[in-house]
Specification:
The protein is of the alpha/beta class. 41% of the residues lie in helices and 15% in strands. The chain is globular and about 40 Å long.
Length: 186
């Protein structure tokens, strides 16, 4: 699957949707990853770090042209015009903003809003082992979403929809654990 990580353009946003370590794991699972040039600069991650992890550095069109897009915040109106119908979008998408949801639906985007995932009361320390566990949990959760996205057309039957709901619940728990640690270079 082709995954895109675009530059966050919202004023004041300094995060990036994926670290080089996450990119390395995604590529290790057989995915192609395109990171928009400069996407990590505000998070102190240079393009060469993404290239060293195996990502391709590209334009906004390249990142938004992927089958699955990882974003920190919902896309702007200008960014929505770059996203193809049928694309899967994962990020903090403000699912309670009806205008944003309507615009994404109008564009034919399948969106997974991470802030809508159930919060779990899993306590973890701030040590290296806990961060590694969180990174692995996030990678596993994203991998599950990839599998769901790849089989999206087959979700029409009740049995497949039930399996999808079970996997989504499991993914929500793993994402809640992983979200305890902000993406940053250590």
């Amino acid at each position: 699957m082709h995954i895109g990580v675009p530059l966050e353009t919202q004023t004041g946003e300094t995060r990036v949707a994926a670290t080089p370590e996450t990119i390395k794991k995604l590529i290790g699972q057989g995915h192609k990853v395109t990171v928009q040039s400069g996407a990590g600069v505000n998070a102190s991650v240079v393009d060469s770090a993404y290239e060293a992890a195996g990502a391709t550095i590209g334009s906004a069109n390249d990142a938004f042209g992927a089958e699955l897009i990882l974003k920190v915040v919902a896309p702007s109106d200008a960014e929505l015009t770059l996203i193809k119908r049928g694309t899967v979008l994962v990020g903090m998408l403000n699912p309670f903003n009806n205008d944003t949801i309507a615009k994404m639906a109008e564009c034919g985007i399948t969106a997974f809003a991470l802030e809508a995932a159930r919060a779990s009361a899993i306590a973890a320390g701030n040590d290296v082992a806990a961060r590694a566990a969180a990174e692995n949990a996030l990678t596993g959760a994203v991998s599950s979403l990839f599998a769901i996205a790849e089989s999206y057309p087959t979700l029409r039957s009740n049995e497949n929809m039930l399996m999808f709901q079970e996997e989504l619940a499991s993914t929500e728990n793993r994402i809640a654990f992983a979200r305890q640690f902000p993406h940053r270079v250590t």
